[in-house]
Amino acid sequence: MSGGATGRRLFVNEVATRDGFQMESRFIPTDDKVALIDRLSLLGYARIEVTSFTSAKAIPALRDGEAVMQRIVRRPGVVYTALVPNLRGAERALESRVDEFNIVMSVSETHNLANLRMTRAQSFAQLAEVIALARRAGVPVNVSLSCVFGCPMEGEVPLSGVLAWIDRFAALSVQGITLCDTTGMAFPTQVRAICEAVRARHPALPWTAHFHNTRGMGLANVVAAVEAGIARFDMSLGGIGGCPYAPGATGNVATEDVVHMLQCMGHDTGMDLDGLIAAAAELQTLVQHELPSQVSRAGHRLVRHAPPADFDDIAARAHARGAGELHA
Length: 328
Known about the structure:
This protein is of the alpha/beta class. The chain is built from 13 helices and 8 strands. The protein has an 8-stranded parallel β-barrel, surrounded by 5 helices. The N and C termini lie far apart (56 Å).
C-alpha cells in the first residue's frame, strides 16, 4: 500500500452543519445548531465546517451563520471553518472569528456557471481577492475544488485541467486543497490515480478528500484515497447533504460509517464512535427524517445482541438430539 501501512493517523472534518444543513428543507433553529456543534466538538474532530457566509437569500438554511459561529464553544485542537464565497462573505467571517476560510470553485466550466453563475476565470479572480484578504488577516485558506472526479453535465474532467487549477491556487500559497467528488461520480481506481498524481505534483500541500455516496462507492473511495496517502477527509454526520445537480443523489459519506470502517482497519481517527452514533440520533430528531447512514442504525460490528428467548430450550434439544445420534 502506498502512503504507508495500516495504523495511520487520519483526520476527520465534519461538514453536516454546513454541507448537510444547507440541503435540508426544514430550518434548523440556531440554538439546536449551536448545541449540536458543541456536542461534536467533544468527539475528536480535526475540523468542523460550521456554516456558510453566503447570502441569506442564496442559502436561507444558513442565514444565522454569524450567530452560530459567535456562540459555539471553541475547543482546543478543533479548527472551526466556514465556506466563504466572496469578499463580503470573507469580511463577515472575519467578524465572526472564523479559524479558516474554505473557498469553493469547480474545475468544470459548466458546473461552475450553473452553480456559481461565473466562469472559472471569474471565480478564480474573485477568490484570489479573498485569499489576499485572508493573508492580511492571518487566516489560513483551504480551497475546495468541485467536480474533480467528474461533472454531471460535462462527464469526465481531464486531469490536466484539474492540475492546472491546483497549480494556480498553490501559487497563491493556500494552506490546503480539498478534492471534491461533488455528485458521487468517483470510483476507487480513479480516486487512487488522481490522489497520487496531485500528491506527487505538490507533496507539501495538505490534501483532503470529499466523497459523496451517490452510487454506493463512497466507502470504497475513502479506502482508495487512504491507500494513495490522503490523511484528511470530509464527512457528514448521518450522511446528510447532496447536490442539486445530481437528482436523487444521497449525501456525503456518513461520518459514523467511515470512522467505523477506518477503525476496523486499524487506523487511528481520534474519534469517539459511540459519541458519533449518539449524535446521529440527535441529528435525526433535528432534521425529522431517517438518515442514510448505516452504523447509526446497526451499531459497530461487535455490538452484541441477546439470543432468542427460548435459546436454552433450543440448545438443550439440539444437544439431546446430538447425544441420541451418537448412540444410534
